[in-house]
Design brief:
The protein is α/β, with parallel strands linked by helices. The chain is built from 8 helices and 9 strands. The protein has a single domain, classed as 3-Layer(aba) Sandwich (Glycerol-3-phosphate (1)-acyltransferase).
Length: about 270
């Protein structure tokens, strides 16, 4: 019953605030939309706790650097964005262009100053990421980017993409790895939610100026190792390290390439 009630509340709350944000987007500047989205995020965090029974404990606030920085969290739950966004007053976030297909979202995202990139990636996507991140950096805003680019099941990691490295290098910004056990209670986009206490933990910022390979290795190790520990704590089980997997869209592309190669060789 909790899952049903939360999912109904999720739909109603999201519809209400999307329409409100679309109206707010008609006003000049970002302020009106930003305030609506802040209320939306707080409403969703409240619903997670009050209806789904998922409490979020935040750890590591004292590790956050002063000024602008980049947040690089684990992404195992649709609720991740709400839990992270709720911790900051004004956060620029990186999202795929799939959200622009929903009614009103393109206008709202533009007003928010969201950094929208092509889900297919490539040099053009990285260039767009750099341009949008430059605007956010110029405004002194903190930036949220999920290095895996996809929702990963608990216990699975996807290839960490290098966009976060180039952003940190280009703007000389510290990167804060973020671990989370929320996926143990709300896995990816699953209908069923489990009550319990999830932990969102800000980890030690990575040193500025690392070479790409070292940066990516240290980021992945920090996020994955601590997330595995938090999941073990949440589920009262031994720590199990994540295994490398492939997102569904990459699996489909690989299957299509294999089928095309087989056809060509026939």
């Amino acid at each position: 019953m909790r899952s049903l009630a939360f999912n109904l509340a999720f739909g109603l709350i999201s519809t209400f605030y999307t329409l409100w944000a679309a109206l707010a987007a008609l006003r000049p500047g970002r302020g009106a939309v930003r305030r609506v989205i802040a209320r939306y995020v707080r409403a969703m965090v409240w619903a997670m706790q009050a209806i789904a029974g998922i409490e979020i404990e935040v750890r590591g606030r004292g590790r956050l650097p002063k000024g602008a920085f980049i947040l690089a969290p684990k992404h195992s739950s649709y609720g991740d964005g709400f839990s992270v966004y709720a911790q900051f007053d004004d956060l620029a976030f990186v999202t795929g262009d799939h959200l622009e297909r929903f009614p009103f979202f393109k206008t709202v995202l533009a007003k928010l100053g969201a950094i929208v990139v092509d889900n297919c990636g490539g040099p053009e996507a990285r260039a767009a990421l750099t341009r949008s991140a430059a605007a956010a950096h110029a405004e002194g805003r903190k930036i949220l980017i999920y290095p895996e680019g996809h929702l990963a099941p608990v216990g699975v990691r996807f290839r960490y993409r290098t966009g976060v490295y180039y952003m940190a290098r280009d703007f000389d910004m510290p990167v804060v790895p973020v671990a989370s056990s929320l996926g143990a209670f709300w896995s990816q986009e699953a209908w069923t939610k489990r009550p319990g206490k999830a932990v969102l933990e800000f980890l030690e910022p990575l040193p500025v100026g690392l070479e790409k390979d070292e940066f990516m290795a240290r980021l992945e190790a920090a996020v994955e190792d601590r997330t595995a520990e938090l999941v073990a704590e949440a589920l009262d089980r031994p720590v199990t390290r994540s295994v490398l997997g492939l997102p569904d869209d990459e699996q489909r592309r690989q299957a299509a390439r294999a089928a095309a190669a087989a056809k060509a060789g026939a």
